[in-house]
Amino acid sequence: MKNTPVRIGYLLALAALLAAPALIYPVLIMKVLCFALFACAYNLLLGYTGLLSFGHAAFFGAAAFVAGHAIKVWALPPLLGLAAGTLAAAALGWAVGALAIRRQGIYFAMITLALAQLLYFICLRAPFTGGENGLQGVPRGTLFGLDLADDHTLYYPFVAVFVCAFWLIRRTIHSPFGQTLRAIRENEARALSLGYDVDRYKLLAFVLSAGLAGLAGALKTLLFGFATLTDVHWHTSGEVVLMTLLGGMGTVFGPVAGASVIVLLQTELADKAGSLVTVVMGLIFIFCVLAFRRGIVGEAVALYRRMTGVKTR
Amino acid sequence: MNELFGIPLAALLGQLVLGLVNGSFYALLSLGLAIIFGMLHIINFAHGALYMMGAMLAWMALHYFGLGYWQALVLVPPLVGAFAVAVERTLLRRIYRLDPLYGLLLTFGLALVTGGAFRHAFGAGGQPYAIPPQLAGAIDLGFMFLPKYRAWVIAVSLAVCLASWYVIEKTRLGAYLRAATENPKLTQAFGINVPIMVMLTFGCGAALAALAGVLAAPTTQVSPLMSSNMIITVFAVVVIGGMGSILGAVLTGLGLGLIEGLTKVVYAEASSTVVFVVMAIVLALRPAGLFGKEK
């Protein structure tokens, strides 16, 4: 990161994040961060590897249940609970990814969707998920002697976990590994002919993305104290696609922007519109595909380049 | 012989017939998906929503206009087909040049809009739809009772699937269609109006889904939620069968319906997941699908 304005931008964003609870309800910010992390993890796959997974709710939801179970029933401390959820999601991602990368493009999307549905039915039947009621009453526990039940106390460790995960994703994108993923996105046959083991790279990206999506799910359980079947439902998979698409796929900050807009919109509409929320989400989807494919951040970057006269890629 | 492996034969056969009924719906829906994918290179996520529209429109026709089952069977599929044509003209047409994945995303949005709109208007509760009097009751086959309506659903679906196969493989129109699927530019150069064919293909695929919906209305509770899981099962069917051949899609649909019915008898807990398990096994053993031609 030699670029000074970019570095200042990151520091300002971090400062704003640390100061935010003074002005905004911290639970809402943490909810946004959860889904922002989920979308960033997803973007690693859709935006940087060019793989459209339609089953990421499986990893988000499975980790939410595993973390909840670990904290509530096994009485693990919260950080270990998060780790358990993340590892479970990564293992699941390995199994799903290994099957799904056997087909390309549109089939890949359908396979991930179907395997996620398989997991949904398993969660519906399994005893430890609580079925239709979900897993309720997960305690937040304590960290270094601090009681996390207080929203303001939970906020700073929460932000720390988010920043670490976000840094990891950013680091991955700018690493040689990330460059290879982009090469696969642009031209898979060419990457293969250059000697890259494309399937191994894809699987690794899938596992990484699933694990981080799992971390987001586990954080969600910690924040709200429950995990429900909604977390594994395909609607949630659709939501994360929408967040990434709206924010701008293949951009570092796009998913954060997309997740913020969608979560705030849902919170805003929940009491006013009820069942029309789905319709609004669908309309945003259609609008994004037809006229807004670069997303918020993508369009902003393009506009900035036009104004400063730098040639758009 | 009244039992097979300790399972009453009548119960087994009853579940198998029910499995075939479900299989007929899978067959009709995956057939439509396959035809649409061939021409438009779009996987229609809204296919389940069109199926739901078929059933809901049949119920609305009865509830608001007093039109019975037979009128609905004739009127609803063209109506939904016309709706699909309008969608193709206004929305899908704009994204043909893009990656096929955008087609999936756009139709996903459409599925959310239609599903949400129907749920907003009619609520999530199920509405009963009576079996038409001509098809009520059952036939005694000696070894089991076959409900007439189930037999009718299977017969109609098979007839429609065979007719579609005949039109596509054996007629001049079908030859144009196959040519346009193979190479649209060259086909257009021969003076065939490909955009019109694309539009009609989407309309016909949608009409097939609506037909399945009307057929399904008396077998289940008609509700805006009836399609929410259907489309994913049909996707699994399509992955298992591969979209290369029409008969393949039909056979896979019926076969998976049978397997599902069988699972209900042997191990009921797994009946909702068995299709996905079969898909995972097929992917592991034969990644291109049973009838697929992987490039």
Automatic annotation (TrEMBL), chain A:
Pfam family, one: BPD_transp_2
Gene Ontology molecular functions: branched-chain amino acid transmembrane transporter activity
One of the record's GO cellular component terms: plasma membrane
UniProt keyword terms in alphabetical order: Cell membrane, Membrane, Transmembrane, Transmembrane helix
Principal localisation: membrane
Transmembrane segments: 12-38, 45-67, 79-99, 106-128, 153-169, 203-228, 240-264, 276-296
Subcellular location: Cell membrane
Name the record gives this protein: Branched-chain amino acid ABC transporter permease
Protein species of origin: Pseudothauera rhizosphaerae
From TrEMBL, chain B:
Family the UniProt entry places it in: Belongs to the binding-protein-dependent transport system permease family. LivHM subfamily.
Gene Ontology cellular-component terms listed: plasma membrane
A Pfam family annotated for this UniProt entry: BPD_transp_2
Keywords tagged on the record: Amino-acid transport, Cell membrane, Membrane, Transmembrane, Transmembrane helix, Transport
Record protein name field: Branched-chain amino acid ABC transporter permease
Membrane topology qualifier: Multi-pass membrane protein
Transmembrane segment boundaries: 12-35, 68-87, 99-118, 149-168, 189-218, 230-259, 266-285
InterPro entries linked: ABC_transp_permease (IPR001851), BCAA_transport_permease (IPR052157)
Species name: Pseudothauera rhizosphaerae
UniProt subcellular location: Cell membrane
Domain of life: Bacteria
